[in-house]
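Help!! Second protein's tokens look totally different from the first
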Amino acid sequence: MNAAEAARYLAVLGVPRRPPGRDALAEVVSAHLQRVPFENLSKLRRARAGRHGVPDLGEFLDGVEQFRFGGTCYTNNSHLNALLTHLGYDAVLCGAEMSRPDVHLVNLVRLDGREYLVDGGYGAPFLEPMPSDLDRDLEWSLGRERFVLQPRNGEGRSRMLLYRDGQHRHGYLVNPVPRALSHFDGVIEQSFAPDSTFMKRVTYIRFAPGRSWILQNLNLLEFEGAASRTSRLEPDQLPAALEGVFGVPGAIARETLEGFPVPDGVWE
């Protein structure tokens, strides 16, 4: 990433360039979570065009600016890593174990003698850097969801847990070994297989402090504090919902979803 690209990235996020520090890092992380959604429309669109892999920085920023796209963990966290590194942070990409080792991608940032977990690609309201040198669980809730970051285990690995409606649903275990993005080439390619999670569903999640808007297939949910609201959509209402709630141009949403068999399920 060069200086001009970094300047454009920061402009897209709406934050100034500042020397590395805890407050400056928090500002970038918060803006990234609010401006760069967790979504798979961009993935479906690339697959429809026969293109796989992570979009380059120019395409990524074009998507954020023009279409209100973002991506899943591979796209969002790898570009965030490049930005943080350019800004002078000691930021490394690491894998995380979910169903298999290194199927999720996160950032670890070392700053002023501490280490922080930064994850802009889990579809969760991680609007601040999360310290990994904990001596007790770090917990927070939004709507029906509760998140728990546990202290590092004897192998130096942090565990993130997600509870929904009081039940543990999923999570991940960080592998703190620094990885190049190329380490994930195989799992990224597999993520474009027709039977992979984000090739057979529609997901779009946007955050603001204390609030989230979540589209999962034909279900639109809004969380604010402890409150939640759910709306049921018809398939032909999806483009309008994506435009009205999330800012995705209706024409782009219709083109991307044309012929796509949107399932009815929610909450995996």
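Here's the second one for comparison:
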Amino acid sequence: MKILVVNAGSSSMKYQLIDTTTEKAIAKGICERIGIGGAISHKTADGREFEEAINLPTHTEAFAQTLELLTSEAYGVIGSLDEIDAIGHRIVHGGALKETALVNYEVYDMLSAACALAPLHNPGALKGIDACIASCPDTPQVVVCDTVFHSTMPDYAYTYALPADLCKKHAIRRYGFHGTSHKYVSEKAAEAVWDKPENLKIVTCHLGNGSSISAVDGGKCVDTSMGFTPLEGVLMGTRCGSIDPAIVAYLAKVENLSGEELDDLLNKQSGLLGLSGSSADMRDITERANAGDKQALLAKSTLVYQIKKYIGSYAAAMNGLDVLVFTAGIGENNSRLREKVCDKMDFFGIKIDKLANRDFKRGEIVDISAAGSKVKVLIVPTNEELMIAKETKRLTEKTN
């Protein structure tokens, strides 16, 4: 099958056309500055590239340009739109939706209701769905939500200790994010250790500008670090992660900050950027820490410490740990951070081969466990687009 994967934002739309037989993208690109000018870049697997500033008033025009490129003589990879078997949409927040679903009126309304919980993401995704339906009305449209993988958490893991009536009224609970990535890498990790997911206790560390850690027991998520929003959990590029909630009220009072200003402070001025005072990029932080910058060293050390705490707590929650996975930008590429996280984790049976950790082939699954390590430690490159394509294929074949 050929599945078109669409990841639409408020003013952008990324896409990949994936052949599920080979599990490779045969074309991919991005439409940017939608509504404020417009530009599109497109690349095929055989190396043909197209890049141009072009007027894109709405997502509808952006998607039309995408389809034109995919079928064009110079830059196309398919003969007609009929070759697109289904379209899979990446949705950050599924709200009450607990499974991958075909788009219908009920599902659309559920995603619309979740806009209040993900105002920066869901509205753009809905625009992408609208554009796809307008251009391809007979093509199955499937939504794959980041929150769905985490819907298997038990109630005691997703519940916040607030008045129950308020939680019910406002749908307040731990939702979790990066679910598509956590699902993909946990399944790939099981394949790598020649076992079935249902037999394994896995901790997956998705570490990037946005980071989350998940406990996957028997192939199902039982806990995850992000919560009601993607702000909770370990500190991130510009996000503070978990803090004492009283700090928010205190800062509002002593700094006379509005709700909008507090939101900006916690989401865009904190994390690595706030601690280091210089950068939100882990590469810069590492370089400056190595040069003796005390604030950069503190930022890096704090992140390492928090990751270690989550790994330990999730091993306790699952009553064991078989596989530890590192993925995403920092997780896949920062060998020194992986080494620091795994240092002095012998109690959990975690030991890594430092040479294998530092000298590995990027883009491949790599076992960096030391001889005698009771826990397999793996680097697993994530591929959220492929996971969306596979989920879209599974559902469309099931419903046909």
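Reply: Different proteins will give different token patterns, so don't panic. The chain has two domains: 2-145, 194-384.
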